[in-house]
C-alpha cells in the first residue's frame, strides 16, 4: 500500500465559524494505482490532497505514506502553478534544481519531459507566450520531471476548454500507462475519472466521505475510445445518479450560508 489513510478528518476555524471540511475518511491506495476522486464543490477533495502532500495536517486520524524518499509527492494544480518569470525549461527543471541535481543532468531530464509533453520547441519561451493547454503541459512536465513516487493532481484540466481537455486527458493516459506511478487525481468530471482511473471514488457533500467506489472495467493500455463504450455510459449514469444528490445538497448548503 502506498497511501494508507485512517479516520482522517479536517476542520477549519473555531466555534460558530467552524467548518467540518473532510471525513472521517478511510482510504488505501496501492502502489502504482491511478485513483480518481470525484465530489461536489467544497467537499474537501483539495484538503485531502494537501494532507497527503504534507501541506495540511489532519485534525484527527492519520495518513501513512510508504515513501522511499524524503519528498515522495509532486502536485499539479488547476491554475498551473508555474513561475511567469522563468522560461519553460527553467520551470520544468525547478524541482530538479531544488533537489540539487547537477545542471547538465537536470537540463537533459527536463528536456526529455518537454519532448514527451510536446513542448520541445518552447524550452526558451516564457509562460505568458503559451496557451492554457501548453501551460498545463509545463506544469505536468515539472511535476513528472522529479519522478515523484506519488503524483497529486488537483483538477488539472478544469481551466481548459472541452476540446483541449480531451486532448490532455488522452496524453495523460498515455504517459501514465507508459510509466506507472501512484496518482491521486481530483476532478469534477465523472467522464475524466472513468477514463483515467483504475478506481473512481465518489465523495459526499461536506464533510467529504467516500460514498461509492467503482473499478472502470477497461483493460490497460486504454485509449480515449473507451469513452464511447456502453459500459462507460452505464457507469457514468450510475455514478451521476449518486453524485447528483450530493451536488444538490452542497449547492443548497452553500445557498443557505449566503
Ligand atoms: N484554509 C482554510 N480555511 C478555512 N476554510 C477552508 C480552508 N481550506 C478549505 N476550507 C474550507 O473547507 C471546505 C473544503 O474545501 P476544499 O477546497 O478541500 O474542497 P474541494 O472539494 O476541493 O472544493 P472544490 O471542488 O470547489 O475545489 C470548503 O468549505 C472550504 O471553504
From TrEMBL:
SUPFAM superfamilies: P-loop containing nucleoside triphosphate hydrolases
Alphabetized PROSITE patterns for the sequence: ABC_TRANSPORTER_1, ABC_TRANSPORTER_2
Annotated InterPro entries: AAA+_ATPase, ABC_transporter-like_ATP-bd, ABC_transporter-like_CS, ABC_transporter_ATP-bind, P-loop_NTPase
One Gene Ontology molecular-function label: ATP binding
Family matches, as CDD domains: ABC_NrtD_SsuB_transporters (cd03293)
Keyword Nucleotide-binding among record annotations: yes
Keyword Transcription included in the entry's annotation: no
Keywords: ATP-binding, Nucleotide-binding, Transport
Stretches assigned to the ABC transporter domain: 3-230
PANTHER family tied to this protein: ALIPHATIC SULFONATES IMPORT ATP-BINDING PROTEIN SSUB, TAURINE IMPORT ATP-BINDING PROTEIN-RELATED
Name of protein: ABC transporter ATP-binding protein
Species this protein is from: Yinghuangia soli
Lineage: Bacteria, Bacillati, Actinomycetota, Actinomycetes, Kitasatosporales
Amino acid at each position: 500500500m502506498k497511501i494508507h489513510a485512517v479516520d482522517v478528518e479536517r476542520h477549519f476555524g473555531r466555534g460558530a465559524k467552524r467548518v467540518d471540511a473532510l471525513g472521517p475518511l478511510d482510504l488505501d491506495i496501492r502502489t502504482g494505482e491511478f485513483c480518481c476522486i470525484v465530489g461536489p464543490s467544497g467537499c474537501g477533495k483539495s484538503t485531502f490532497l494537501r494532507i497527503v502532500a504534507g501541506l495540511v495536517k489532519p485534525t484527527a486520524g492519520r495518513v501513512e505514506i510508504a515513501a522511499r524518499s524524503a519528498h515522495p509527492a509532486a502536485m499539479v494544480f488547476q491554475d498551473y502553478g508555474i513561475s511567469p518569470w522563468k522560461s519553460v525549461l527553467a520551470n520544468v527543471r525547478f524541482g530538479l534544481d531544488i533537489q540539487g541535481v547537477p545542471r547538465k543532468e537536470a537540463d537533459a531530464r527536463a528536456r526529455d519531459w518537454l519532448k514527451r509533453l510536446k513542448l520541445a520547441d518552447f524550452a526558451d519561451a516564457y509562460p505568458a507566450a503559451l496557451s492554457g493547454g501548453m501551460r498545463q503541459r509545463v506544469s505536468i512536465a515539472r511535476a513528472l520531471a522529479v519522478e515523484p513516487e506519488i503524483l497529486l493532481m488537483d483538477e488539472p484540466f478544469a481551466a481548459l476548454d472541452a476540446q483541449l481537455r480531451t486532448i490532455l486527458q488522452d496524453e495523460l493516459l498515455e504517459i501514465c500507462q507508459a510509466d506507472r506511478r501512484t496518482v491521486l487525481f481530483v476532478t469534477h468530471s465523472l467522464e475524466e475519472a472513468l477514463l483515467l482511473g483504475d478506481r473512481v471514488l465518489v465523495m459526499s457533500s461536506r464533510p467529504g466521505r467516500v460514498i461509492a467506489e467503482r473499478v472502470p472495467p477497461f483493460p490497460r493500455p486504454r485509449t480515449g475510445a473507451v469513452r464511447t463504450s456502453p459500459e462507460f455510459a452505464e457507469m457514468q449514469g450510475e455514478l451521476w445518479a449518486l453524485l447528483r444528490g450530493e451536488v444538490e445538497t452542497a449547492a443548497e448548503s452553500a445557498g443557505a450560508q449566503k
